[in-house]
Amino acid sequence: MPVTRTEVLELRSGSDVVSIRQVVRTWAVEAGFSLVDQTKMVTAASELARNTVDYGGGGTVRLDLLVDGSRRGLRVAFEDKGPGIPDIEKALTDRYTTGTGLGLGLGGARRLVNEFDISSRVGEGTRVVITRWK
Amino acid sequence: MDRIPILKLRDLLLVSIQVDMHDRLALQLQDELTARISETGARGVLIDISALDIVDSFIGRMIANIAAMARVLDAETVVVGMRPAVAITLVELGLTLPGVRTALNVDRGMALLEAKTSSMPEPTTDLNDADASHAD
Q1: Residue B60 domain-assigned?
Q2: What are phi and psi of B115, to 5 degrees?
């Protein structure tokens, strides 16, 4: 799939989560998303960025602007080298949380995007990739 | 360090969130609001989120917590000014904000809170009302 632009950002702290939201917003505007679609993508990114910081001990975010024929999309990948998720199915279940959150992060983010991919290895880390098309 | 101002207007507390909040700031607002309700004896809290372009599960939880803590302290919370795109996203995210009253704008939010606070008047108002009815 042709990628027209890429950017990789560090994700270490709560203020990085705020900057990621702003960067994702800018890219979503650039991809031509409607206001509602921008909001969904930014909200999903906010949930996943927080997971990377709070559970993964920080990591990176990679943004790709995609072109597939006439349609444009935005792909955002979150990667950490944290403890990993032992049971992904369980982690995707609403209301399930190991921390103090609502347990809506992963499942909620999945509902806000068109494509959602998660892979995790215990002791090695977690990678979550979301894509939304215009 | 950012700080979100909390204004007192008669027996209400007013908050307008104008910045993209990081999680620590959201928690700080939650603590400060709870302390101010207790200090001032406020009967209502109005939170204007019209400047927020997203509400994710963390900010949603902060709002729900404020409403729950306020209720325990005998104050009602109304959230006003949620943008339509934010409302659509919240529903898909699965966040229902139980126990949080909402209103479209500040005017309607104030009307809701005033109706609540006037249905439970201050003791002095009670006496005046009683006097008035005796005079009849």
Answers
A1: yes
A2: -60, -40
Total count of domains within chain B: 1
Domain that holds residue B49: 6-135
User: Based on the structure, what is the number of domains in chain A?
Assistant: 1
> CB pairs under 8 A, 24+ apart, for A89-97?
A92/A118, A94/B94
Residue B17, strand partner residues: none
Q: What are the pLDDT digits (tens) for A16-56?
A: 999 999 999 999 999 999 999 999 999 999 999 999 999 99
**What is d(CA A2, CA A37) in angstroms, rounded to the nearest whole number?**
21
Which ipTM score applies to this complex?
A: 0.89
pTM higher than 0.90 for the full model?
no
Domain span holding position A13: 3-133
Instruction: Check A108 against B54: CB less than 8 A apart.
Output: no
Interface residues from chain A to B (CB-CB < 8 Å): 14-15, 17-18, 21-22, 25, 35-36, 38-40, 42-43, 46-47, 50, 94, 101-102, 104-105, 107-108, 111-112
CATH number of the domain that residue A84 is part of? 3.30.565.10
Q: What is the DSSP string of B67-91?
A: HHHHHHTT-EEEEE---HHHHHHHH
Q: For A39, which of B23, B54, B60 is closest by C-beta distance?
A: B54
CATH number of the domain bearing residue B65 = 3.30.750.24
